C-alpha cells in the first residue's frame, strides 16, 4: 500500500506542476459533451498521472480517459479513480480552489486517497490506516521521505456550538438549502464556502462539521476525499441507500451524499 501511496503522491505533485504552467498562461476553455469545461491543464495533468499509474497494471477510471462500459469493469477488484483537475470552474476563475484527486478503490471501497492543491502546495493523503495527514510543501519536489516524516495527522471537530456546514461556491440549490434549514431548527449554523474536493478536507481537518452534497457528482469527484474522510473517522453516506458510498458502480454518477461524523 505504501508503494501505491508513494506513486499517487508523486503523480499528484507532478500533475500540479503541469497545471500551474497552464494556470499562469492565457489558456483556452473547451466545453465537453456534458457541458463541463475542459482546459489544457486537465489534459496535461491526466497524461502525467497515467504515466505513473499505468505501470501498476491496476485499471484506471479517470475523468479524462475514455470510460469503459460496466461489462468491462464489473470484475475489477481494484481500480484507480482519478480526477486530474477537480474544480475546473475554480481553475478558470483563478481562485485557487482546485485539486488533483487520486484514489485507490478495492471492492468498491476507497482505501487510499491523495488530494493536492497546486496553488497552496497543500497535500492531503491517507493509506487507509485509520488516519489522514496534511502537509504544506515548500517545493513540489520535496522528497517522499520528508513528506511522510513531516505530515501531520488531521481530525474532525466535535459538533459543539455553531454547526459549520461546508457548501460550494458553484452549487447551493434548494435541496441543500432545505437540509440546512432542518439543522437550523436546533442549531446555529455557519456556511463555509469552498470549491472542489477541498470540501471533504475541510470536514476531515475540523474546519467544518457537515458536507451535504445534493447536486450531481461523479466518482472521480469524491473517491479521494471519501478515503481521506473514512480514515479520519467520518462517514460518507449515500442519501439514496443510506449506506456508505460505493465505487466502480454500473453508473459512475453518484447519488446525493452527506459527509458527517460517526
In short:
The chain is of the alpha+beta class.
List the topology elements.
Elements: H1 2-23, E1 29-31, E2 37-39, H2 40-53, E3 60-62, H3 70-73, E4 78-86, H4 88-93, E5 99-106, E6 109-117, E7 122-126, E8 132-136, H5 144-150, E9 152-154, E10 163-167, H6 174-184, E11 189-193, H7 198-204, E12 211-213, H8 219-231, E13 234-238, E14 257-261
Parallel strand pairs: 3-4, 10-11
Antiparallel strand pairs: 1-2, 4-5, 5-6, 6-7, 7-8, 8-9, 12-14, 13-14
Helix pairs in contact: 1-2, 7-8
Helices and strands: which structural class?
alpha+beta
Query: Any idea how many domains?
Result: 2
- The averaged pLDDT comes out at 94
- Cα separation of the termini: 25 Å
Q: CATH homologous superfamily name of the largest domain?
A: Fructose-1,6-Bisphosphatase, subunit A, domain 1
Helical percentage: 25-40%
Q: Any idea of the CATH topology of the largest domain? A: Fructose-1,6-Bisphosphatase, Chain A, domain 1
Report the oligomer.
Answer: single chain
- Which consecutive residue ranges, at least 5 long each, have pLDDT under 50? none
Which geometry do the CA atoms define?
globular
